[in-house]
Design a protein that fits this description.
- By secondary structure, this protein is α+β, with helices and mostly antiparallel strands.
- It has nine helices and 25 strands.
- The protein has helices spanning 3-10, 27-37, 43-55, 71-76, 106-113, 131-142, 162-178, 212-218, 440-443; strands at residues 13-21, 83-88, 92-98, 118-124, 147-153, 184-188, 232-233, 236-238, 250-254, 259-261, 265-269, 273-282, 285-287, 289-291, 295-300, 311-314, 321-331, 337-338, 342-347, 350-364, 369-372, 376-377, 382-394, 406-410, 417-423.
- The strands form five sheets. Strands 7, 8, 9, 11, 12, 13, 15 and 16 form an eight-stranded antiparallel beta sheet that branches.
- Helix 5 runs parallel beside helix 6 (131-142).
- The protein is globular and about 75 Å long.
- The N and C termini lie far apart (58 Å).
Length: 448
């Protein structure tokens, strides 16, 4: 890579985005077309795809094979696992996650979209908005993905008809808006032919908007975490006790959000003890200020009890601590999540014992209705849960912070991830009084 190219990349921003859609909507083909037409594919990769396509009896290279890397994916012509790809243009760098379309792989979409700033939801122009389309829109809304692109694919198979595109765009936009998606952009494309992916289509002169790549390059993305509530999860306690550093005690970790300054009054949660920041060490040097997402070591003025999993926050802006976590979750394990089940809850660097106190509802994606008191959640279900923890946790609402408002439920027996959770209210929030019912009788049976 030349120095000029390095300078160009250093001046560009990074966009993380995910693709989603129903089976055979053309997600992998779209990603392959993006990589190919933006000249982000190495020669040997393209040759390997051409050879694999020839062996399958195809005349032209199947660009979907650029992302479908598993053998089972190639054999079946479907996407099974999340495929991450990295590419860049002179205007922006990209990390994309190509997620599966099958209903049983919805949990994979949660993984791919959890860190995305934009989601591309594909729709087959012949089929329109289907249940999986609504499911993926709901997941994007739950994960607070700020930008959603509706890519109406296979326009070449409907003779590039504007009314077909307009009807699909109107239906999807109305649905996504009802979920609270803040921004929706609809683009008619043909991933196979390349229409409106990287280059404007010659077949759709009625469309005057951006191509997919142009939108990806220009959509405003803010990575400025410094304006959010300052949060520092402690990952490691550093106490060398050497002749050179006999009294050094520092707390290492990555700043999740916000800014920390030397001399600032902070609280350590969940204990609530208050002190001031005596020093901040970054890359072996003392600094006066540090901000997200820097990895630093914070030194405190008082020798108070701080350990891995504690959260340091400004005393004037601390999150509430609670042992009753109410959240929207997507269940990702094959084994169901049931009321009364004992789990581990992992939040930032803290892991505590917990019990599933209540499952108030399961979301029906067809009409966004709530199925009350389902008793359990099975793989790919989205629902509301109330979890009781053995120790207090300092959680933000997921709407305020995707980093400190998210958590995982883990099987204590084998460490399997069971459920991905988003604390606080969402469009799936319970609106009736069931969640506030008296549970004192159940409390008496708990051993923590």
């Amino acid at each position: 890579m030349t120095s000029t190219t390095t300078e160009q990349l250093s001046a560009t921003t990074l966009l993380r985005f995910a693709t989603a859609g129903s089976v055979d909507d053309g997600k992998s083909t779209l990603v392959g077309r993006l990589l190919h037409d933006s000249k982000s594919v190495l020669t040997d990769q393209l040759e390997a795809v051409a050879l694999a396509s020839t062996n399958r009896g195809q005349e032209a290279p199947d660009l979907a094979l650029l992302t479908d890397g598993l053998r089972a994916e190639r054999e079946q012509g479907i996407t099974i696992d999340v495929a991450y790809r990295y590419f860049a243009t002179p205007r922006r760098r990209f990390i994309l996650a190509d997620t599966p379309g099958h209903v049983q792989y919805t949990r994979n979409m949660v993984t791919g979209a959890s860190t995305a700033e934009l989601a591309v939801v594909l729709v087959d122009a012949r089929n329109g908005v289907v249940e999986q389309t609504r499911r993926h829109a709901a997941v994007a809304a739950l994960l607070r993905v700020p930008h959603v692109v509706l890519a109406v694919n296979k326009m070449d198979l409907v003779e590039y008809a504007e009314p077909v595109f307009a009807a699909i765009a109107e239906e999807f936009t109305a649905y996504a808006a009802s979920l609270g998606v803040p921004e929706i952009t609809a683009i008619p494309i043909s991933a196979l032919a390349g229409d409106n992916v990287v280059e404007p289509s010659a077949h759709m002169d009625w469309y005057g908007g951006p191509t997919v790549l142009e939108h990806l390059e220009t959509v405003p993305v803010s990575h400025d975490l410094t304006e959010r509530h300052a949060r520092f999860p402690v990952q490691y306690v550093i106490r060398p006790q050497t002749a050179e550093h006999p009294d050094y005690r520092g707390y290492a970790g990555q700043i999740a959000a916000g800014v920390f300054r030397v001399g600032e009054t902070v609280s350590v949660l969940p204990s609530g003890r208050t002190t001031t920041i005596e020093g901040i060490d970054a890359l072996g040097e003392s600094v006066d200020i540090a901000w997200a997402p820097q990895s630093v070591t914070i030194r405190l003025a008082d020798d108070i009890d701080v350990s891995r999993g504690d959260l340091i926050a400004p005393s004037s802006d601390t999150p509430a601590t609670t042992q009753d976590v109410e959240a929207t979750v997507c269940h990702v394990a094959d084994q169901p999540l049931t009321v009364g089940q004992r789990v581990l809850l992992k939040h930032t660097t803290r892991t505590v014992k917990a019990i599933v106190k209540e499952i108030p509802s399961r979301l029906t994606l067809d009409d966004l209705s709530q199925h009350p008191a389902p008793g359990q959640l099975v793989a790919n279900d989205i629902g509301r849960v109330v979890v009781r923890t053995a120790e207090p946790l300092a959680l933000d609402a997921y709407a305020d912070s995707r980093r400190t408002g998210s958590f995982l439920l883990i099987d204590p027996a084998d460490g399997t991830t069971l459920t991905a959770g988003m604390a606080g209210a969402s469009f799936a929030a319970v609106t009736d009084g069931d969640a506030d019912a008296d549970t004192s009788a159940e409390d008496a049976e708990w051993d923590f």
